[in-house]
Structure formats: C-alpha cells, structure tokens
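Hi R.,

Here's the chain you asked about this morning:
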Amino acid sequence: MPEAPRHSIVSILPCTNIEASTAFYARLGIALHGDFGTYRILTDGAGWVLHLSSEFPEGWLTPGKNPNGLYVYRQDVDGLAAHVDDLLDGARPEHKPWGMYEFALSDPDGTLVRIGWPSRLMKSASVMRPRDVVTSWIDAFNRADVEALAALYHPDAVNHQVAQDPIEGREAIRAMFAAEFAKAEMVCIPENRFEDGEWAILEWRDPKGLRGSGFFHVTDGRIAFQRGYWDKLSLLRLHGIAT
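And the predicted structure, written out as tokens:
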C-alpha cells in the first residue's frame, strides 16, 4: 500500500474472529499489511484496501443477521470463483440485470461479499444468456423484488400466464408482480432449467406442492415473451386466497 493513500473510501468490517477473517480475505487475494492486534489492514497491493476490527459495540454482529456487505471489483471473476470453488456450494458467476458479471459468498461473520466486473467489459459475453436470465428471474422472484423482475423484461414484453389474460408491457408486468406479491408469499423452487437457442424453459414447484412450468423467449439479454402453465385453482386454495 502506498505511503500516500489515493483519494478513496475504505471499508472497516467488524469481525468476531480476526484470524478467521484475515484467512478468508487472504483467499480473495487481500493479504495482511498491518497488524495492530484487534485492528488489521489488508491490501492486494494494487488498489484494494480493507480494514478489519474485532472491537465493536455489543449486538453489532448477530448470527444470521449481519447487514454488512462488500463489493469487490475484479476483472478475472471466473478465475477467483474457481480459486474459492469450495466456498460456493456449486454456484457460478452470472450476468446480473444490473449490468454486472458476478458471484457472491459470505465471510466467517456472514458479511455478504460480491465479486464482479461490468458485463459490458467481459470478453465472454455482453448480454445474459437465456438460462442466466431465468436464474436472475428466480432470484428476484424469491426476493419479491418487483423492480429487479421488471428490469429483466423488454419494454414491450408480454407475460402470458395461461390461467389468466396476457399482460403486455414492462410497466403492466411490474404492476402484476406487485399485486401478486401483496396477496401471498410466493416461492419458486427450480427443478429443471433448459436452454434452446433464444428460449429457456423452467420447471418449478413451491413449498406447498404446486407445480408448473415457464417458457421464456429471451433476446438481447431480456425477456421478450413469457408463457407459464400452472393450476390457478390449486394456487388459490394452497395460499388460502378466496376464489
């Protein structure tokens, strides 16, 4: 790390076990630079700087409820993902609707660490493949994130769930999701995902036993047309919604 720091912002992360946290970030390429007991400074020597502190007010780090997050910009996303493959539980980097090619993992205290690079600068692809779009769709759906879902559709997209009338246009699709999430908590558990040219196919179930499938026509990294098959009456009954 240079003696005269560049104009920058540095994150200070609380940690319950500073040795475990130091070892974790070392695997990401951020090595120990300064050790002051309960306070450590880490760097990769090329611009990344991270401070760790094991002194913090009681209650800041509650297991399972850590609100902290860290975003690491790195061009070789795939290389780093391969290096920490044992920590990813089979997950792989993906192109996200917010324009980043990234993957995520948690440090020993549950701090969310995202590692990525802008999709438009990746040599492998500038837009998401249909299967990646569906994976992002599932993630956003399970967060009930209406804005992230809407961002996956073209402005003139059509969403036709065959149990009801087609919904035309991104804004109408956004409104549909907002209304549906207000009625019930919905979860999509993917069972199979397939890709064939510009089409992706999703077979899914939910925790209550409902099953269905979806067909997504994806062009230029966004959904142009979607058709879904499921039993509306079963859905209403399983979620206790009046018919």
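Residues 99 and 119 are 5 Å apart (CA to CA).

Let me know if you need anything else.
M.
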